[in-house]
Amino acid sequence: MVLPNLTEIDIEYDRDHGWLQWFHGATLGKLASVIFRPECESIGDFLEAFKRVALTASFRDTLTELGLYTSCSWNPSYSSLLSFTQLIHLVIEVSCDDSCSSTVDDDIIVDLAQMTKAGNHSTRR
User: Contact at 8 Å (CB) between 39 and 13?
Assistant: First the structure.
């Protein structure tokens, strides 16, 4: 896939994240913002799957904003985000009944803080 001028993608999906392979080796030289809105029963470790694909594509070093809005329970590996060296704005919203959650502990916050440079980056959960 070659879309050299694409700067933003907003994707809503309702099945597993196998479709991410479409981005394997993609040339998306200006991609700065990606928003995912999964509508599925289980999203597993989506951030790790996204990282694996991004490592083969041109947008790993251009992505400055990542958003994930879900009503699914999940327990991701936030350390996967450390591969995105230009990430400035991260939004992860888990909006569902009291029966779901996403674990964030001190170690995860420390890992995410490593992404910041001179206080210019922000995260919101």
Answer: yes
Domain region containing 96: 8-124
Query: What is d(CA 121, CA 85) in angstroms, rounded to the nearest whole number?
Result: 11
Into how many domains does the chain fold? Answer: 1
Residue 54 is encoded by which pair of tokens?
A: 């991004």
pLDDT at 54: 87
61 versus 102: which is more confidently predicted?
61
| Side-chain-facing half-sphere of 118: CA atoms under 13 Å | 1
Contact between 23 and 52 under an 8 Å Cβ cutoff? The reply is no
| Whole-structure pTM value | 0.74
Q: Is residue 2 in some structural domain?
A: no
Q: 65-70 and 33-38: which strand pairing?
A: parallel
- Tally Cβ neighbours within 10 Å of residue 45: 14
Does residue 66 lie within any of the structural domains?
yes
Instruction: Note whether 80 and 53 are within 8 A (CB).
Output: no
Flag whether 48 is in a domain.
yes
Phi and psi dihedrals of 41, rounded to 5? Answer: -70, -40
